[in-house]
Design brief:
alpha+beta, 114 residues, 4 helices
Length: 114
């Protein structure tokens, strides 16, 4: 429900959520902005997330090059990519993850560029 999402938003620093069905299958995403917009539009806190989430997920394989994933995120303006293999969710990647990776990589290279 929206109430569950509000509770998670207020109790964490997470800004985007992966919505899964009762079996753990990814079915959508919900951003902080979508949540606030739904509440501002008068949606009930009891409303199911399916009524406010974005059901279009960007699914990638774990072998996709990082730059391609970043391009997809920018092009489609999605909060994250879901990484799937063999029908199983391996995780999610967002632009902050990519930026952190590049910063660590640059630091490990002694500042010689990423």
């Amino acid at each position: 429900s929206l109430r569950d999402a509000v509770d998670l938003l207020l109790s964490s620093q997470v800004r985007s959520f992966l919505v899964v069905d009762p079996f753990g299958k990814p079915v959508g995403s919900l951003s902080r902005e979508q949540l606030i917009e739904a509440l501002s539009a008068g949606k009930s806190l009891l409303s199911p997330l399916v009524h406010v989430m974005d059901a279009e997920l960007l699914q990638v394989s774990p072998t996709m090059p990082l730059h391609e994933g970043f391009r997809l995120l920018q092009e489609h303006q999605k909060p994250f990519l879901i990484v799937m293999q063999g029908g199983h969710l391996l995780g999610i990647v967002d632009t902050e993850n990519i930026a952190e990776f590049l910063l660590v990589r640059q630091a490990l290279m002694g500042g010689r560029g990423a």
